[in-house]
Amino acid sequence: MHRYLRTLLYGALAFAVYAGISFTLGGRVNWLLAAATAAGVMLAVFFIAPRRRR
Fold it and tell me: Please, which residues have CB within 8 angstroms of residue 39's CB and are 6 or more apart in sequence?
């Protein structure tokens, strides 16, 4: 459960940061690109982060 929650939180954070930066710089937000960025971050966190060994 912790892994899925962390993945969703990173995706939401990436979405918010991208939307904020896009709105600040251009005054408009490309929602499709913001969602694609969040999906990419979630995939990276889900598949790449667990490869670290403790």
Answer: 11
